[in-house]
Amino acid sequence: MEAATFGSSQFTNISGSMVSRRSLLLKLHRNSITFKSPPKFSVRASAVGGDDSAVTLLDYGAGNVQSIRNAIRYLGLDIKDVETPEDILNAKRLIVPGVGAFAAMMDVLNNNGMAEALCTYIENDRPFLGICLGLQLLFESSEENGPVRGLGLIPGVVGRFDSLNGCRVPHIGWNALQIKKDSVILDDIANRHVYFVHSYRAVPSEENKEWVSSTCNYGIDFISSVRRGNVHAVQFHPEKSGDVGLSILRKFLLPNSSIAKKPLERKATKLAKRVIACLDVRTNDNGDLVVTKGDQYDVREQTKDNEVRNLGKPVELAGQYYLDGADEVSFLNITGFRDFPLGDLPMLQILKYTSENVFVPLTVGGGIRDFTDGNGRYYSSLEVASEYFRSGADKISIGSDAVYAAEEYLKTGVKTGKSSLEQISRVYGNQAVVVSIDPRRQYLTSEDEVGFKAVKLENLGPNGEEYAWYQCTVNGGREGRPIGAYELAKAVEELGAGEILLNCIDCDGQGKGFDIDLIKLISDAVSIPVIASSGAGTAQHFSEVFEKTNASAALAAGIFHRKEVPIESVKEHLLKQGIEVRM
Questions:
Q1: What gap in Å lies between CA 21 and CA 151, rounded to an integer?
Q2: Which residues bind L-glutamine (predicted)?
């Protein structure tokens, strides 16, 4: 989705009233910009509840809008989907969630006649809440795949975060707000963390200061929310911000309701380190989907029956981890999608049911690739990912397919745009794509023994080796590939990954701590967030990985499933060590 480019000089004569600016921008939209329409995008129409008290939702058809639907229903309200511009104009309360790419969203809004209706609705000071892209579209333009014209209601250009200032892009995680004025829906939120996931932002200025209700700092101060009258918009995701986010939505949708305030335990000051609960899901020998855990990727018990290790039911465990304070929940479907991705209905149902009551980000991985079924029907990885998103996933994790794409890219130097990583990143944004790396240590006697990046080990190898390189694997660690973790991480960042989930087969299930050498190597090499995985056995292992590396998050599975170390204990320990976490 690429918008035609045009010079910045075309922006300089946009001035005057909001109405004249809006009219000029819409005219420029129609006359100056040509979009390539995404084939699967349309305004969804599935009206749930049609009375005047229903919440009107503008779903333009990309990313996980299921989460905001679930949050609205959780609060006891019905939803009416926008089908025509008149539905916008007649709305009593309108929510515009935005996930994906700015150009794609504006393309749909303009092609369906929604842009002008939105401007009219907002100019008339009707109750409006924009989320993420729903905030960005209010500005004059965005640099994402552009410049691309926005609605032009708020002065300013939406630009990309600069990774050169030391910040990892995308901005992913729980950050703090600085309230600038009475914001109504953000009352009592100033000292709490909310969830962000974006690569582009608008910055406060003299021209837009009357709109700005809060800012957030991530290298620079950027606009985290705006408000004028009944018009609100937020850059973060309230539907993914736990109880705090539900409180924000409740204040917008049910302004006269009263709720008990949660006692403030800690004041949020900056981006928090994330603690993620991971659930490996597979069918057991009876055909039931269970949460399991491997020992160096072996998920079967060392018993006479050699049965699949069963640690609980996926939906119930995910719900408990949400209540325990997990910052994200990650599902890895380790068997179901190997034969037919879109036919794995049980996993899609798990996502659907989990997202109805878990209001933190959900990541899912396993078998996301192009696929041809037994009848010769071809399914693109984009279609597979779309099913995940529609079922409630916020991010998808790609493993083996990303390794093959990186190998081809390093061999040819050409970005084909055809890999699952590139396709999904282009449509949904790189913040929606995680690449899972499964490396195994290969010990060396000297640093230059192989043609891959090696590290000097903190602890010597089994035969006294001082160095190792990390060989990437595919197919659940069963096949080694001629590419190192360092080379893979650098390549997938260039191909569009927004985050790296960094495992280590040698440490998996051992409980002796994360592979600090590996995590430091990769987190220093890339400018996207890195999630440390494999090896956690104590709360101290989490503080160690955050203190010794640039990991943005740490993930664990078995110690949470077996209740050896509760999530709350991990966070309390991190706080005592002076590490910012969400409580």
A1: 9
A2: 132
CA dist list (Å): 50 to 46, 215, 250, 478 = 11, 36, 20, 53
Q: What's phi and psi for 399, nearest 5 deg?
A: -110, -95
- Residue 426 is which amino acid? R
Phi, psi (deg, nearest 5) at residue 360:
-130, 165
Report the alpha-carbon distance of residue 67 to residue 360 in Å, rounded.
9
Q: Is position 367 annotated in a ligand binding site?
A: yes
Distance CA 34, CA 12 (A): 21
Average of per-residue pLDDT across 130-140: 97
Q: What angle do CA 494, 431, 183 make, to 5 degrees?
A: 140
CA pair distance 57, 55, nearest whole angstrom: 6
Q: Is 454 helix (H, G, I), strand (E, B) or coil?
A: strand
Nearest to 235 by CA among 189, 199, 181: 199
Helix-, strand-, coil-residue percentages of the chain, each rounded to 5: 30, 25, 45
With contact defined as beta carbons under 8 Å apart, do 518 and 467 qualify?
Answer: no
Higher pLDDT, 165 or 573: 573
pLDDT of residue 12 exceeding 90, the answer is no
461-471 b/e with 16+ CB inside 10 Å = b? eeeebebbbbb
Consult the annotation and say whether 132 binds a ligand. yes
> How far is 564 from 357, CA to CA, in rounded Å?
25
Q: Is 535 left (phi over 0), alpha (psi -120 to 50) or beta?
A: left
Residue 11 to residue 31: CA distance in whole angstroms: 15
Ligand-binding annotation for 7, yes or no, is: no
Half-sphere exposure of 247 (CA within 13 A, CB side): 18
Is residue 260 within 8 A of residue 151, CB to CB? The reply is no
pLDDT digits (tens, 9 = 90+) for 485-507: 999 999 999 999 999 999 999 99
**Alpha carbon distance 421, 168 (integer Å):** 19
> What would the pLDDT profile of 175-192 be if each residue is shown by its tens digit?
999 999 888 999 888 889
In Å, how far from its chain's centre is CA 312?
A: 26
Model pTM score: 0.86
- Annotated catalytic residues are 132, 237, 239, 280, 438
With helix as H, strand as E and coil as C, how does 462-490 read? CCCCCEEEEEEEECCCCEEEEEEHHHHHH
Gap between the Cα atoms of 499 and 492, Å rounded: 9
The amino acid at residue 546 is F
Mean of pLDDT values over 232-242: 98
